[in-house]
Amino acid sequence: MKKALITGITGQDGSYLTEFLLAKGYEVHGIIRRASTFNSQRLDHLYRDPHNGDDVRLYLHYGDIGSSGNLSDLIRQVQPDEIYHLAAQSHVRVSFDLPDYTGDVTGLSTVRILEAIRRADSHARFYQASSSEMFGSASPPQHEETPFEPQSPYAAAKLYAYWVTRNYRDGYGLYACNGILFNHESPRRGETFVTRKITRAVAAIVAGRQQHLYLGNLDARRDWGYAPDYVEAMWLMLQQEQAEDFVIGTGEAHSVRELLDEAFGYVGLDWNQYVRIDEKYYRPTEVDYLLADPQKAFARLKWQPRVHFRELVRIMVDADLELAGLAAPGEGRSILEERYDGWHRWQDQVASMEKGTR
Q: Where is the signal peptide (predicted)?
């Protein structure tokens, strides 16, 4: 039985990767931060209580990617075959507000793990979660040989992690690779990321719980894919004979405006009535256009995205409608009926409010 160690296991990618590896027969170990509240909701459906005699192949360890000693101890204890480093301060806009923290967590954590692998003389194969944000202002489409032009503290930190991964591969012979993943989303995406922020707002507006959605740059274009597809690519990178770096994306880009068109249009709404621009959501240096050229991954990994833009948006809207109570599983009413009932209730409330102000 292979063993995998995952940092950031409680995040979107970590939870999907855990599902994928468990289905492959792995024993999975994850590093989680100690907190006074539980933060493992994305993994709850995978947990098995050893007291009930269940087959346990998922283990969570308290740890700190800011501590070299702690990481070394965990690697010696678990003795993993594969290490997936997914943990980071991954919100680009927040990195401008917390640049030093972002540099430490997103950049230096990578060298801590690599050095722990080297010192332990471990055979573990290492995956570094690199980011398309490293390309920054480089002209699209971007591929493995495109020069990096980072435009944020987050991108700069990821670029340090990218190069130190290559340095340990070349200098020490570690099996270490970078997955340069373009934007990948799902219903498990964090609520402050623009895709999930939009789909949650759609559900809240339909349910009559929200009136406006505040956003920044609507003209930014991104290559958006489906997170469960992308964790398969992570795994495939560590199954190759030699470690290499790969760009992972769909090969098509869409603007935030197009995302609004698709999400609001799916429930019959015009987003122009609800969206407001707030300058605080603009970045000091913007990244206008990220578009993957994933031909190397298509050819070498035999990987292809299964879910594309329109289906992705609809998956996310449906999930947030269900979370808003508009599509309870097992009930006879369709999602569409619930959607429009919620919409009509909201319209009635708006009409009543307007009447009261006259």
A: none
Catalytic residue among 19, 82, 133, 232: 133
For 46-68, give one letter per residue: b (16+ CB within 10 A) or e: eeeeeeeeeeebbebeebbbeeb
Cβ density class 290-328: b for 16+ within 10 Å, e for less: bbbbbebbeeebebebebbbeebbebbbbbbbbebebbe
Was 212 annotated as part of a binding site?
yes
Contact call for residues 70 and 64 (beta carbons, < 8 A): yes
Please indicate whether residue 131 is annotated as part of the active site: yes
H/E segment holding residue 88: none
Q: Choosing from 16, 154, 175, 226, which is the catalytic residue?
A: 154
Distance separating alpha carbons of residues 141 and 139, to the nearest angstrom: 6
What pLDDT, on the 0 to 100 scale, is given for residue 160? 97
CB atoms under 10 Å from CB of 41, counted, come to 10
Distance between alpha carbon 21 and the CA centroid of its chain, in Å? Answer: 17
pLDDT tens digits, 299-343: 999 999 999 999 999 999 999 999 999 864 444 344 444 444 444
Q: Which of 95, 131, 132, 186 is catalytic?
A: 131
Which residue in 213, 181, 198 sits closest to 319, CA to CA?
Answer: 198
Longest dimension (CA), the chain: 76
Instruction: Classify strands 176-181 and 246-248 as parallel, antiparallel or unpaired.
Output: parallel
Closest to 191 measured CA to CA, from 8, 319, 283: 319
- Cis peptide, bond prior to residue 150, ω within 30 of zero: no
Q: What is the reported pTM? A: 0.87
> How far is the C-alpha of 271 from the C-alpha of 215, rounded, in Å?
12
- What is the 8-class DSSP label of residue 183? P
First to last CA, the chain: 71
Which residues in the chain come in under a pLDDT of 50? Answer: 36, 328-344, 346-347, 350, 357-358
Q: What are the backbone dihedrals phi and psi of residue 182, each rounded to the nearest 5 degrees, phi first?
A: -80, 175
The string of pLDDT tens digits covering residues 4-61 is 999 999 999 999 999 999 999 999 999 998 664 556 678 877 866 665 656 679 999 9
User: Any residues with CB less than 8 A from the CB of 250 and at least 6 apart, and which?
Assistant: 182, 223, 224, 225, 292, 294, 305, 308, 309
